[in-house]
Amino acid sequence: MRKGLRRLTFFVGLTIATGASADYSRHPQAANLLKVLSTQYGFSAAELAQVQQALVSAQTIPSLIEAEQKAPERTETWSTYSTKRVDALRIKRGAQFMLDNRELLARAEMEYGVPPGVIAGVLGLETNFGRITGGARVLDALATQGFDHPTRSAFFFSELTEYFVFCRDFGFAPESLKGSYAGAMGWAQFMPSNYRKLAVDFDGDGKRDLWSVADAIGSIARYFNDYRPQLAWRRGEPLIVPATLKGPLDGRIERNGKNVAYRVRDLQQAGVIPAVKLPADMAVGLLELQLDPAGSPNKEYWIALPNFYSVMTYNPRVFYAMTVSQLASAMTAEAARLDQQSP
């Protein structure tokens, strides 16, 4: 994670070096933002004035757009990506995290069906178990991305709108919170819309606080059930199964999609053999991962079960969901080993 920390520090440094006052209150889309807040969310005149003042103070930070466009899930090979993240230190930290929070994780699994290792895998990959929750002001990140992003401005503009509603409803000053280059917040790195809709008060203190470990654990578990109901978590089912090929794979077979595309029998007929027996009619997908060096014939294959695609709703990249899957397995095994050694 040291490299990841240096990379984050670099981007934060860019933020300080290149951030400039933008006065987004004068942007052509600002009037639309205020109208939506007024008509759809009932913002008062005083609340709209606070939003306008926040837009005046927002900084434009081009480096945040660059960070979003060059996210490692998009730019690295599988070998490079996984080696940096499924590492001994993160596995050790994750195992200890699971032991330290076993009661919370067990309750989350009981209520939502999501195993402790998967929840820990998300937290380990998103924020290194709360160590790195982001150094950019959420206001600056969402204003920059929402007003200036060349291809995804509509998404981020919607999240900027949600952020102002979130701040009003949760009692935060828009200028006060920090998060990722994309505006994600807390241990669980929820975007504002998901924070509003899916965060839970898992420790019963009357607040939905994703900077607290308990609420982050419960909220991740709920997310996998309620974010996209058609891909809701399936209690007791695994995420992935290794596979081998009997021969050359038909080029028409879909790889690395975002949902199940076949039945197990279909892949078996195409020469894809799972390492363990699966029901012939189970809905699955096929993963093909390029190993280093890029462009070489070295590839590995996995059969992805529905829960894998549930994880992909958190981040729609195969590398991300594969890493969560592998971290979950490795951390669960290490936690069991440590637990056996404890007096």
UniProtKB/TrEMBL annotation:
InterPro entries: Lysozyme-like_dom_sf, MltB-like, SLT_2. SUPFAM superfamilies: Lysozyme-like. It comes from Hydrocarboniphaga effusa AP103. The lineage of its organism: Bacteria, Pseudomonadati, Pseudomonadota, Gammaproteobacteria, Nevskiales. GO terms for biological process: peptidoglycan catabolic process. Residues 32-328 form the Transglycosylase SLT domain. Pfam families: SLT_2 (PF13406). It comes from the Bacteria. This is Transglycosylase SLT domain-containing protein. Keywords: Signal. GO terms for molecular function: peptidoglycan lytic transglycosylase activity. The keyword Signal applies. The keyword Signal applies.
